[in-house]
Amino acid sequence: MAKYVIVGASAAGIGAVEAIRDVDPVGTIAVISDEACPQYSRPMISDYVSGKADFPKMKCRNDEFWMQNSVEAILGKKAVALNLAEKTVALESGEKIPYEKLLLATGGKPFVPKMEGQEKDGVFTFTTIKDAERLAAKIDAINAKSAVVIGAGLIGLSVTDALTKRGLKVTMVELQEKILSLLLDAKASDMVEAVVKAAGVNIVTGQSVQKIIGKPGNEGAVGGVVLTKGDTVPCDLVIVAIGVIPRTELAAGTAIKLNRGIVVDNTMQTNVPDVYSSGDVAEAYDFVLQQNRLLPLWPLAMQEGHIAGYNMAGQKTLYNGGTNMSSLKYFGIPIVSIGLANPKEDPTLEILVQADVENKVYKKLVLRNNIIVGLTFVNCIERVGILYKLMKDQINVKKFKADLLRDDFGLAVLPTSLQKKMSVVH
Amino acid sequence: MKKIIAKQEACMGCGLCEVYCTVAHSKTKDIIKAYNSERPKPISRVRREVNKPISFAIQCRHCEDAPCVVACLSGAMTKDEKTGEVKHNKDKCIGCWTCIMVCPYGAIKMDKENKVVAKCDLCQDQKEPACVANCPNQALEFKEVRS
After folding, report:
1. d(CA A127, CA A108)
2. Contacts of A4 (CB under 8 A, 6+ apart)
3. How far are the Cα atoms of A141, A149, A303, B20, B146 from residue A235, in angstroms, in the given order?
4. How far apart are CA A332 and CA A198, in angstroms?
5. In the predicted model, what is the mean pLDDT of residues A56-69?
6. CA distance readout (Å), A154 to A4, A359, A362, B52
7. B131 in Cβ contact with B14 (< 8 Å)
């Protein structure tokens, strides 16, 4: 019997443990994960493949983390069923773990559309350390020279960067007309695309892969892909990097309310008392869209895990929300994109842009009623956190909005009242 | 904990804080070499901000609820529960810039050559941080504050 049972040992699970221990040093905690390895940072799997980080470097908490927090870590075992009436989680082995408070932090799994040939040897997804290890081993085993990456979003770009660093010729295939379309507008996307192409990557947009074909004489191994319009791209590997979908299996068929993910309130509690959810599996609050949605991002999962942990331990804490927010380092071009970075035409939005195409510097702010609701910064990201603060606190920027895109923008241009509030000046 | 406090009314915006911070975080500790020849280039972790007539220096505030620590992907950014200091471990850092995205003070710098971030470490091995010790008008103080 553990007072707190957490299913999932990644960001949200780790965050919850830290928060619970902040208020309850003694209540028993059990963490269940189907991954047998120590806690590690999933966003770092591309650094693993590129060779920039080995597994020890990927550990986002020290080896003693579970022990120091008196956590019973049930690793390498899969939770397969919930019984909400008797308050237990059943493991694959048949063992039942009773709980008082439960956190479902089961995360996401890669979305793989049905494609002919997807069972061939050399097709990979890219979410866990296992995926990264298998991919890295395969590259060595077959001395892979080329790859097709399906999807040109965050994951697609990260794996493309890693494979390019390892000397593979990569073709990215993206169904949208532009790469990184959830993060960048057309102009910024073109800027980034030029950099990615200059590193030797082929980019195909407006198409997807209709089937994966075998190698001549070895039909079981990946030999290439056929694109929607019929062109064939030969390759040794295919990486499916379209996105992740929430792992809701445990909650499905129970009284826990599901939409696309698990629906939670602003304490991260589900509709079922004592059952909480956080991270990629949960639909938490987006303060820009002012609604709950899936936001499968590491920093938000950690934050949501904290909120869940505090509430599970009895310290009421409300989540003020996250939004779609990413920072990218790939191909040496730093990018930060937050909120409505690439909105559709909308007369209620005011857009401020400053672009220096030659130096690949791009700054864009999206305002609604003088409140920042979106931003994109390329190659000049150092003080963007100040703008995020203004955005998050919904500060009216009318009086100083002309200063927001200045090269020397900083705290000094903010109103004195705000500087005082932030204890920048005293 | 002891924090660096800027006195805006005493700051002349001279930028010597940046110069001495750069030197303090250089390998050579030599002002000429630090600026002219040292590679990778040493980075100042303090920023002088000027918006006339206002000027002040800003560096990591070692926030109580530090957003950079929550957001850090690799575990490089940690909060020392005993001292209150926000610590950055360069060896763990992967230069993903996530901390930069969420720092409300813009106090985290990119160290592009090392592909990591750099921020104020309060000059651990010194009696007083270099920016404080070398401010010509005592516009920076190192003093105990409620965290």
Report:
1. 8
2. A16, A20, A27, A28, A29, A30, A99, A100, A101, A102, A103, A312, A313
3. 15, 10, 40, 53, 60
4. 12
5. 95
6. 33, 23, 18, 40
7. no
Sequence ranges of the domains in chain B: 1-59+122-147, 64-119
Determine whether the interchain pair A60/B74 forms a contact, defined as Cβ–Cβ distance below 8 Å.
Answer: yes
Spatial separation of the C-alpha atoms in residues A274 and A87, rounded to whole Å: 9
CATH number of B64-119: 3.30.70.20
pLDDT band at B76 (very low <50, low <70, confident <90, very high): very high
Rounded Cα–Cα distance for residues A46 and A149 (Å): 13
Partners of residue B97 in chain A, C-beta under 8 Å: 327-329, 334, 336, 381
Chain-chain contact of B104 with A388 (C-beta, under 8 angstroms): yes
Whether B62 contacts B85, CB under 8 Å: yes
B109 touches chain A (CB under 8 A): yes
Structure tokens at B45: 């972790």
Which domains can be identified in chain A, with CATH numbers? 2-109+246-312 (3.50.50.60), 112-242 (3.50.50.60), 334-421 (3.30.390.30)
pLDDT value of position B147: 57
User: Model confidence at A177, in pLDDT bands (50, 70, 90)?
Assistant: very high
To which H or E segment does residue A187 belong? helix A186-198
How many CB pairs lie under 8 A apart between chains A and B? 120
Whether the full predicted model's pTM is greater than 0.90, yes or no, is yes
Nearest-neighbour CA in chain A from B28: distance (Å): 26
- CA separation for the pair A300, A108 (Å, rounded): 14
What is this model's ipTM?
0.97
Q: What is the pLDDT of chain A when averaged over all its residues?
A: 96
Alpha-carbon gap, residue B4 to A407, rounded angstroms? 26
The helix (H) or strand (E) run that includes residue A247 is none
Say what percent of chain A tops pLDDT 90: 95
